[in-house]
Amino acid sequence: MNHRQHLLILAVDQRPWLTQALYGHTGTATVEQRAAICDGKHMVLEGLVAALAEEPRLARYAGILVDATLGAGVAERARASGVTVSMPLERGGCEIYESEPDDLKSYLDHHHPELPKVLVRYNVEGDTEGNRVQRERLAEVATAVRESGGRFLFELLVPPTPAQLDAVGGDPERFNRELRPTLVHRAMVELLDEVPVDVWKLEHLQQPEHYRTAVRIAAEAGGECILLGANAPAERVENWLADAAGAGFTGFAVGRSIWWNAFRGLLAGDVARPDAVAAVAANYRRFAAAFLAAAPEGTEPAERGVQ
User: Fold this and answer.
1) Helix (H, G, I), strand (E, B) or coil at 85
2) Which residues share a beta bridge with 63?
3) Within a domain: residue 46?
4) CATH number for the domain including 64?
5) Which string of DSSP letters, residue by residue, matches 23-44?
6) CA quadruple 31, 36, 39, 45: dihedral positive or negative?
7) What value, to the nearest 5°, has the Cα angle with vertex 275 and ends 305 and 229?
8) pTM confidence score
9) Which of 6, 86, 106, 245 has minimal CB crowding within 10 Å?
10) Which positions of the chain have pLDDT values less than 50?
11) Position 2 in a domain
12) Domain hosting residue 195, numbered range
């Protein structure tokens, strides 16, 4: 399956991370907490819709990644606004992938997300049996996604093993620079032996040649790559986006770098809703402009000049 239109996703599917960041726990949120978080996720969608109203040329590329647990109703509102919908299929916070909900077919039939998504932690030099179990489970999920008519979005995270971290003197940044890009490539190849993937959502890969290798691996199996934001500062994300776009990535899925300050301010009562919406809209447009400005000439010519 080859799909080359740009895909500019605003990601707001955080669940355990969000309750931890806001309320200091990863357990089941209270009714009041769920209501507040859900309202915040609707605000994020309103920011995305505002960005598209301000820059209509982005509408054909816009997507939102949102859960039904803490974001009830957001997917439906997004679809009504013509926004592509992606929804998570993983149980949050697990080291070994587990599907959520248990009845994927019913969930997919009910919500019909265009891009069902999984988040997977996978290191080819890590837990051999755990990796085997993950591949087996993910192959089943990929089948369910394809049968539902969706495209399979695979978010790949590669955490270091203790031995890998020791090899770089315990420095996570050295791991990211020196070891992770090759580990990402190896993981993609290993996973593709059993798991068909349409869209890879990848961490920044440091060098243009690393991005190009990921694009080649994905394309050989009919897929494409988009970049995640990792909650990094805006200037850093812009640099990553430029590198990824120039190397052939087709888009991004950026979340907290776009909405976290506005979201937290809204829930704390420090930011008025119109201001929060405007901040999300401005940040989304900023990242969209950075990506599209760096995309090679001749790809999606209708987007040229987006600011």
Assistant:
1) strand
2) 9, 84
3) yes
4) 3.20.20.70
5) HS--SPPPHHHHHHHHHHHHHH
6) negative
7) 55
8) 0.94
9) 106
10) 1-3, 298, 301-307
11) no
12) 7-303
